[in-house]
Amino acid sequence: MPTVLSPAAPPSTAPLHEVIDERIGVALQAKGIAPAARASDAEFLRRIYLDLTGSIPTLGQAQAFLDDKSPVKRQQLVDRLLNSPEYARQTQRVFDVTLMERRPAKHVPQAQWEEYLRTSFAANKPWDVLVREIVAADGADANLRPAARFYLDRDGEPNLLARDVGRLFLGRDMQCAQCHDHPLVENYLQADYYGLLAFFNRSFVFTPKTEPKAVVFAEKAEGDVAFKSVFVDGAADQPARPHLPGEKEIDEPQFEKGQEYAVAPADGVRPVPQYSRRSQLPVLLPRGDNVAFRRNIANRLWALMIGRGLVHPLDMHHAGNPPSHPALLDLLGERIAAMGFDIKAFLRELALSETYQRSSELPPGVEALPPDSFAVAPLKPLTAEQLALAALQATGITDVQRAALGPALNEAALDEKLAGNIAPFVSIFAGPAAQPEQDFQATLEQTLFLSNGSVLRSWIAPQAGNLADRLNRINEAPAVAEHIYLCVLSRRPAAEEVVELTTFLQARAHDRPAAIQGWIWGLLASDEFRFNH
């Protein structure tokens, strides 16, 4: 059941992370739920690195943080990571998958799209500005051509665009309202679906004869939308003009015959209408007073950090699927709009909350807690990209590449060196193209990749400067344990783990290198490595 707080409560001026904890705390108290303890420094360290940079910390970074006695070291780390180039790269990966869902690049090269996103997040471009650019782009402006990938690589198909604009920017998957009002969701209306579709029904992918690769998203001046329910026999067509769900249809200018175009259609000529339906969308959609727009991005960023949306699934905002904490989601939406849709500042507030910093270990004597209570940190399976980058860092391959780059080392150069290693993980661990990422489901193929795959075996084998090579040069077993656990799991080993590893190595003294490789593999294949916890 959703938790409803008093709507009469005065608006708080406290920092957002404090308000989050107050709202979640009140709900937990009302339900008699004791939350998990605060995450250990090691748990927090690994979690925040994976969430904000997409990888795990280096040996030196882990040692420095765990040895730091400062009471504000967590805040300092959050700020440092948010201002790192790795943050922009990770956020680019997250929103690439969110917006394009791993579709193959057809009209806009993947590299150009990724660079557009990366530079946008590096400059901390506000979310409403980014969305405005994406839904306004037609591909003709060279500076914003990458943004047109959202339309062009969906082939400009109106139904697909109506569905995905509704899902990704408003949190409403209205696909089932295409043929009739949604049978299960009261406020997903067929009229609203066609109102969204009407922004796109006059648009099409135009291919210039002189430059076949320079396709653009063009638009005609004519073409109306009408619909009728397949459930009503003899129903008459109902016209629909562009509008956002729940809002009124927009008024449209009328032109005399022959005056509809600024550039008239002709063979090989891209038409330009006097009035563009599609150009109304970037005006109406990314608005601070658009409640659905601001709640959608607040909920998606919450889910990215906390592990589950206040509305779950993310694209099913409707009255029959209310937020677990309605007042909190309202507040988050209002705050992110008031913050100017500053994604970095919003993520910072989430990261500083005690709700984010809870342990993933249940309180003593508790077997389970409701996932929508946010009383315990959920286990988040690493994405394909996170798993690849974490494995590269854990096995020391990233360190080898850093050393090889020498004075030329920077984030972009290192990313280029590592990029080719990510594709095998994407092919095994990512979901199918053109579909939202699915909930975690381990497959036999994934298990075999981790247990016997040639990729990991080659990284675990000793090579100059990697983890196995470094461990082979450490004589004392406790020192080996300290090094290997910090590199792979970003924590120091427990006393019993030191004993286990010492005994293991002593029993295999005749082939110590093979024993070390076996221990590395065991940690990489563990649930502790596979999940962000």
The helix count comes to 25
Oligomer: single chain
Distance linking N and C termini: 26 Å
Q: Kindly state the percentage of residues in helix.
A: 40-55%
> What is the tally of beta strands?
8
Return residue spans where pLDDT drops below 50 for at least 5 consecutive residues: 1-8
Key terms for this structure?
disordered N terminus, 533 residues, mainly alpha, 25 helices, two-stranded antiparallel sheet
Can you tell me about this structure?
This protein is mainly alpha-helical. Helix content is 48%, strand content 4%. It is built from 25 helices and eight strands. The strands form four sheets. It has a two-stranded antiparallel ribbon. Helix 1 (16-31) packs antiparallel against helix 13 (326-338).
Care to give the gist of this entry?
The chain is 48% helix and 4% strand. The chain contains 25 helices and 8 strands. Strands 1-2 form a two-stranded antiparallel ribbon. A two-stranded antiparallel sheet has the order 3-4. Strands 5-6 form a two-stranded antiparallel sheet.
